[in-house]
Amino acid sequence: QLQLQESGPGLVKPSETLSLTCTVSGGTISTTSYYWGWIRQPPGKGLEWIASIYYGGNTYYNPSLKSRVTISVDTSKNQFSLKLSSVTAADTAVYYCVRLMSTMTPDYWGQGTLVTVSS
Amino acid sequence: SYELTQPPSVSVSPGQTASITCSGDKLGDKYACWFQQKPGQSPVLVIYQDFKRPSGIPERFSGSTSGNTATLTISGTQAMDEADYYCQAWDSTTAVFGGGTKLTVL
């Protein structure tokens, strides 16, 4: 059974960079059939797609976040990562890592990790 | 930017049929999918590619599209179906979510 697990600091200071890693188990990240990505959900609010990546390196970014976001993949560790720079309180959210079908439909989700931006 | 519009809330009596809509420009030309999210849990995919149901999702969940609107239908709604539901579509190079609909089973 495929499992995705987010890891990273739960508290980030304003203006700093948020860094999260997703470890994939029960399957390989180097698959031709799927993409991998990040989605976030501010407390009490809806879902927002952040970015997606193919193991070969193709990336897609939410235009509203693109200038601050980097997504990368490490096939040797079966992991992919998210970096979000210059964070503010508005970036406080539960961050989910996901697997996406070729149609860009997220079909597997991690349990999510709450990241709070506060000094 | 592309937008998907959902009603904020829908109410249904147990055993009845619930319909949740998702509207967007030329949505019928894209694949729509639906997620169920219960409090404190990760979203779960219940419909993909407009009408396909993932393994393990009950048959009472179905999806359809017509023109600019995708619809999630829950037949014989059960108390356990009370949750937030989100539609999603891929527009060019961007994934877009609807604002979500809170389904209340009264």
Lay out the secondary structure.
The complex is a heterodimer of chains A (119) and B (106).
Chain A: E1 3-7, E2 11-12, E3 18-25, E4 35-41, E5 48-53, E6 59-61, E7 69-74, E8 79-84, E9 93-100, E10 106-109, E11 113-117
Parallel strand pairs in A: 2-11
Antiparallel strand pairs in A: 1-3, 3-8, 4-5, 4-9, 5-6, 7-8, 9-10, 9-11
Chain B: E1 9-12, E2 18-23, E3 32-37, E4 44-47, E5 61-66, E6 69-74, E7 83-91, E8 94-97, E9 101-105
Parallel strand pairs in B: 1-9
Antiparallel strand pairs in B: 2-6, 3-4, 3-7, 5-6, 7-8, 7-9
What do these coordinates show?
The complex is a heterodimer of chains A (119) and B (106). In chain A, 0% of the residues lie in helices and 50% in strands. Chain A is built from no helices and eleven strands. In chain A, the strands form two sheets. In chain A, strands 2, 4, 5, 6, 9, 10 and 11 form a seven-stranded mixed sheet that branches. In chain A, strand 5 (48-53) and strand 6 (59-61) form a beta hairpin. Chain A is globular. Chain B is 0% helix and 47% strand. Chain B is globular, with a radius of gyration of 13 Å. The chains are: A mainly beta (119), B mainly beta (106). Chains A and B meet through strand 5 and strand 10 of A and strand 7 and strand 8 of B.
